[in-house]
Fold:
Amino acid sequence: MPIRSRIIGVGSYVPERVLTNYDLEKMVDTSHEWILDRTGISERRIASEEEATSDLAYLASQIAIKDAGIKPDDLDFIIVATVTPDMLFPSTACLVQQKLGVQGIFAFDISAACSGFIYALSVADQYIKSGIYRAGLVVGADVFSKVVDW
Structure:
């Protein structure tokens, strides 16, 4: 019987600060209706100066691990999809690994913008299907609010 992978837990985290389309109306020549009609977006979350991509990824990871009913030490690998890493080196995945307190597993980032999370899932799927690994953590995390020129 072939080995199959499956998603056993999910988690999410967003920063507390909210920036609405109405807030953007005060900053640039636009309207809530114009943005909503074209993008479907009514609000976005803004990371604080103290929040990094790895912080958001770590908090979401804790929730996903709990939802899966496993412990961080059960993980065989961590893949983080991001185009806004905390720094170029070490990878955001390694920072998440450290924050989770997990040692002896591999961790790396995939940088592919909007499709990054799908690529990361695909890579994780292949690792599991190989039969060598049993459990991996895949995280999609970005902090675009730190790179956007509002």
